[in-house]
């Protein structure tokens, strides 16, 4: 998150982002005594209030003055959260969806709130302006981490375009608006001396629609008992065993039953998604090229990028409402820079040219009107690759694929591992021959697909995630260079080539991708197969995870760089 927080004024925050559909004038005259005594000392000895005191008094004032209106409550969460171990101090919830047992409920909270006892526990520091509002002070950084974790959990558990959070540190406060590009943070204000600011923010927030509060209006919650809910329940049930044909011997019947169960992993993945604490949704996707809207049923993501800033990729085993079959739905905030093609368009080109061992596109498209705005509020230009932490515009995008793969780490033996990677090398070769380079080879992007061929179960490799792929300037020129299009290094650190780790702006070429295939093979072999490496954990740390710092930048660790330079891999001794 360093470099992703942008300071703004209270007035700008209110004018641009906290504008309810209800245009009625706020009752400012009634707020003169709001929050009075929130941070007052206690008793004759004038003991400073505890964090719990400030929190309780603040929430009491909010409810007393009915700042959130008739539809919302502000609640403390003293009894933990779902999941356990992570909770904000308080949250704003719809009255119809209040959490039970005074626990914070990530799936339904509309705004998270953090309280601190002292004024010096501010997660930010205005004195560093204009360089930025982030502070490296240890306690400030820790407190900032709490706000980041709350935002991350809400972005994960809910379908969000953006969200608000509130930080209270004694008599001061800040409002934060988060999206996938970064976060806008107001200057701190004294809500006890200027109660109208806090009151007006909460008054407006309580009168905004769910979409204005940041909820994604393109998805619809699936209510229990509805036809869509029933369909999800039915698809989660295990299929009945096939009936034995007349005259069929027992061995043939068993084999046929085993084959039928081979692809049942898709259903099992879907069953896992129907987890407690996760809401079910119907996700419409309008595709301009198909000129129709298709809908998909989802619950908990099978895969997700845990973070509040960036692409926020989530992968779901979904039900196609048209066919009632399982499909793979990728929900991502793609980087929206000039020259970047949509992943679905790239895959469609590859599908049309019969490239082997890649996903088949069902449909894809941007979600109309859902684009980040934080990048528009900073002088750090999103197109300036030399600026550290440059903010990038992101656009909400969904892609649906026919195939549902298994993770590479589920390979059966060494032959299976090599065979799957060879299949993906074939896909990479086919794509390169028609002038497209993948540019993001990693273990997570190599999947195992099980198919039935000639009555036998067969496993193949599938090269997935073509989001960062780009056309070569001239497919007949193998040495053609591809210029870096994004201001920050992309890809998975463990599998990036040594040369690209040395220079985050290096132009990615064929040799970088081929080296990444080698790293994927070595990583999985050393992790899951027998070898002469006595200390696997140390080797993984030194070769794949390690980094060095040069001129304030992280670069390739020495073990990988040396191996790629001299062609020898050094194993840890002991």
Structural class: alpha+beta
Low-confidence stretches: 380-388
Terminus-to-terminus distance: 39 Å
Q: Largest sheet, if any?
A: 8 strands, mixed
- Rg (C-alpha, Å): 27 Å
Mean pLDDT: 87
Overall 3D shape: globular
Number of helices: 13
Helix fraction by DSSP (H/I, runs of at least 4): 25-40%
As a percent range, the share of strand residues is 15-25%
- SS elements, strand count: 25
Characterize the structure shown.
With 574 residues, the protein is α+β, with helices and mostly antiparallel strands. It is built from 13 helices and 25 strands. The protein has helices at 10-17, 51-64, 138-157, 195-205, 227-236, 250-262, 265-273, 343-352, 414-433, 498-502, 510-528, 536-545, 558-566; strands at residues 5-8, 72-76, 81-82, 90-94, 104-105, 111-116, 163-169, 172-178, 183-186, 189-190, 220-221, 281-287, 292-298, 303-304, 314-320, 326-335, 361-371, 394-401, 406-407, 436-437, 446-453, 456-463, 470-471, 547-550, 553-556. The strands form 6 sheets. Strands 1, 2, 4, 6, 7, 8, 9 and 10 form an 8-stranded mixed beta sheet that branches. Strand 24 (547-550) and strand 25 (553-556) form a beta hairpin. The longest helix has 20 residues, at 138-157. The protein starts with a strand and ends in an 8-residue tail after the last helix.
């Amino acid at each position: 998150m360093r470099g992703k927080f942008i300071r703004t004024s209270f007035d700008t925050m209110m004018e641009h982002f906290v504008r309810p559909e209800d245009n009625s004038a706020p009752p400012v005259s009634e707020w003169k005594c709001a929050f009075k005594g929130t941070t007052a000392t206690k008793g004759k000895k004038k003991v400073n209030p505890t964090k719990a005191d400030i929190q309780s008094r603040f929430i009491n004032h909010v409810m007393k003055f009915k700042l959130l209106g008739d539809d919302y409550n502000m609640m403390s969460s003293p009894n933990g959260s779902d999941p356990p171990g992570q909770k904000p101090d308080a949250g704003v919830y719809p009255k119809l969806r209040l959490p039970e047992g005074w626990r914070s409920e990530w799936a339904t909270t509309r705004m998270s709130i953090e309280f601190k006892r002292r004024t010096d526990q501010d997660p930010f520091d205005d004195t560093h302006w204009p360089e930025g509002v982030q502070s490296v002070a240890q306690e400030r950084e820790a407190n900032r981490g709490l706000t980041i974790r709350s935002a991350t959990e809400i972005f994960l558990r809910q379908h969000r375009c953006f969200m608000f959070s509130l930080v209270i540190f004694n008599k001061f406060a800040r409002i934060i608006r988060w999206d996938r590009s970064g976060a806008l943070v107001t200057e701190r204000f004294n809500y006890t001396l200027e109660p109208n600011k806090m009151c007006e923010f909460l008054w407006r927030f309580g009168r905004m629609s769910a979409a204005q509060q940041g909820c994604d209006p393109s998805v619809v919650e699936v209510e229990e008992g509805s036809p869509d809910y029933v369909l999800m329940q039915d698809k989660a049930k295990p299929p009945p065993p096939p009936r034995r044909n007349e005259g069929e011997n027992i061995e043939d019947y068993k084999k046929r039953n085993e084959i039928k169960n081979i692809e049942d992993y898709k259903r099992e993945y879907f069953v896992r998604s129907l987890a407690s604490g996760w809401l079910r949704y119907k996700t419409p996707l309008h595709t301009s090229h198909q000129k129709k809207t298709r809908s998909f049923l989802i619950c908990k993501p099978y895969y997700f990028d845990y973070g509040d800033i960036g692409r926020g990729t989530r992968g779901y085993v979904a039900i196609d409402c048209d066919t009632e079959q399982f499909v793979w739905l990728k929900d991502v905030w793609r980087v929206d820079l000039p020259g970047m093609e949509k992943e679905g368009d790239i895959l469609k080109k590859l599908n049309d040219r019969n490239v082997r061992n890649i996903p088949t596109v069902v449909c894809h498209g941007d979600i109309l009107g859902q684009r980040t705005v934080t990048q528009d509020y900073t002088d750090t230009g999103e197109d300036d690759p030399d600026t550290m932490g440059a903010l990038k515009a992101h656009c909400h995008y969904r892609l649906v694929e026919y195939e549902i793969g298994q993770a590479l780490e589920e390979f059966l033996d060494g032959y299976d591992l090599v065979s799957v990677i060879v299949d993906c090398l074939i896909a990479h070769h086919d794509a390169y021959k028609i002038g497209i380079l993948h540019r993001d080879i990693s273990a997570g992007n190599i999947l195992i697909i099980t198919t039935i061929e000639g009555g036998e179960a067969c496993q193949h490799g599938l090269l997935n995630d073509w989001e960062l792929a780009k056309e070569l300037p001239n497919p007949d020129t193998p040495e053609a260079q591809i210029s870096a299009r994004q201001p920050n290094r992309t890809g998975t650190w463990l599998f990036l080539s040594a040369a690209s780790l040395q220079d985050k702006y290096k132009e990615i070429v064929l040799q970088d991708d081929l080296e990444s295939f080698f790293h994927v093979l070595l990583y999985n072999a050393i992790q899951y197969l027998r070898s002469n490496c006595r200390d696997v954990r140390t080797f993984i740390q030194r070769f794949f995870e390690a980094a060095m710092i040069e001129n304030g930048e992280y670069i390739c660790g020495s073990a990988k760089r040396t191996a790629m330079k001299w062609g020898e891999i050094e194993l840890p001794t002991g």
